[in-house]
Design goal:
Radius of gyration: 20 Å
CATH architecture of the largest domain: 2-Layer Sandwich
Shape: elongated
Oligomer: single chain
Number of domains: 2
Distance between the termini: 12 Å
Order of helices and strands: EHEEHEEEHEEHE
Number of strands: 9
Largest sheet: 5 strands, antiparallel
Structural class: alpha+beta
CATH superfamily of the largest domain: YajQ-like, domain 2
Low-confidence stretches: none
Length: 163
């Protein structure tokens, strides 16, 4: 009799790659002509990434630079949770954060997708900020992975594939 095969669905981001993307963004913003004299900057403030500039358009341009650096470093923009620009004194600010782990509401949506679309032998359960998916058939698990690759509300990775 074959045992159960399992894998975990997680949403993790390489913090070092985010820091590298932030450093590259800082260098580009410091050098680019269109950012001269507009007070444009980007920096970590605790867990948040804070972008500043003297106009709403400029602060959105700073965000664009940061997003392009994240993409080049292989980090999905689904992991970036950027707010809306807001005025703070004479400057505009925009706060963004990197989402890690699967939130409960998203985990429930993934569970529902697995129940509705995956082969019937596949079972899933929420374990903290990740999901454990199990089945007796490895083929069914691979079919489930293919279904979840299209999920667009979070950047998902599949780890700990065991048979």
């Amino acid at each position: 009799m074959a045992g159960e095969s399992t894998f975990d669905v997680v949403s993790k981001v390489d913090k070092q790659e985010v820091a590298n993307a932030l450093n590259q963004s800082q260098k580009e913003i410091a050098q680019r002509y269109d950012f001269k004299g507009v007070g444009a900057e980007i920096d970590f403030s605790g867990e948040k990434i804070l972008m500043k500039a003297n106009s709403e358009e400029r602060v959105k341009a700073v965000l664009d630079v940061f997003q392009s650096k994240l993409i080049k470093r292989g980090i999905s923009l689904k992991s970036l949770d950027a707010g809306e620009p807001y005025a703070s004194g004479k400057e505009y600010r925009l706060e963004a954060s990197i989402k890690e782990g699967i939130a409960q509401d998203i985990a429930k949506k993934i569970n529902k997708i697995i129940r509705d679309e995956a082969p019937k032998s596949v079972k899933s359960q929420i374990q903290g900020d990740e999901l454990r998916v199990s089945s007796k058939s490895r083929d069914d698990l691979q079919a489930t992975m293919a279904i979840l690759k299209d999920f667009d509300e979070a950047d998902l990775q599949f780890v700990n594939f065991r048979s």
